[in-house]
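In response to the reviewer comment on reproducibility (Comment 2.3), we provide here a single inverse folding case reported in full, input and output, so that an independent group could reproduce the run without further information from us. The structure tokens appear first.
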């Protein structure tokens, strides 16, 4: 049996009923046995402030850093706000990448999925997030790219995932599992 890789999943929307949270949970259901996806909450992180990031760091910073540090891989699922990533996602990136030289993201394989009710599926957020991750030394999955437009129609009233998007999500999570294995299976 192959090793099970722990994946920290960061969701850019804080809403309980967010489309992106639902997609993250759907990906956890579709993931092959080699991946164990765990949502890491980012909503309680105070805005990053170097003045409060002293020993001891705020409890929320420490908890977040330990959860991400303990993961083998990263998965970012985010909407787009104003052609970029939502503030909570950027804040989580800032908290996890500090103190300088102690990033909890460095060297981990990752992937980005963006979803929006709009037509371009969070393209701007996806690319801005990828830009941050490259700087943070995250090995980001290149293909398949995942910009999911029309995301408001992915779930029915009972919360069941639409079969039309399920096939793409399966392809995405399978490609991601292979990517993680490629980088961690050495």
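Designed residues, in position order:
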């Amino acid at each position: 049996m192959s090793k099970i890789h722990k994946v920290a999943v960061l969701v850019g929307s804080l809403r309980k009923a967010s489309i992106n949270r639902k997609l993250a949970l759907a990906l956890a259901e579709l993931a092959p046995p080699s991946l164990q996806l765990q949502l890491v909450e980012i909503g309680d992180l105070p805005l990053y402030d170097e003045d409060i990031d002293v020993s001891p760091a705020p409890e929320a910073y420490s908890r977040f850093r330990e959860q991400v540090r303990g993961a083998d891989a990263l998965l970012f699922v985010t909407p787009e706000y104003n052609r970029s990533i939502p503030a909570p996602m950027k804040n989580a990136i800032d908290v996890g990448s500090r103190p300088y030289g102690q990033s909890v993201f460095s060297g981990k394989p990752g992937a980005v999925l963006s979803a929006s009710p709009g037509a371009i599926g969070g393209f701007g957020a996806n690319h801005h997030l990828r830009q941050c991750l490259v700087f943070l030394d995250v090995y980001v999955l290149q293909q398949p790219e995942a910009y999911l437009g029309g995301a408001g129609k992915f779930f029915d009233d009972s919360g069941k995932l639409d079969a039309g998007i399920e096939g793409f999500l399966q392809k995405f999570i399978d490609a991601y599992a292979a990517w993680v294995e490629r980088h961690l299976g050495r």
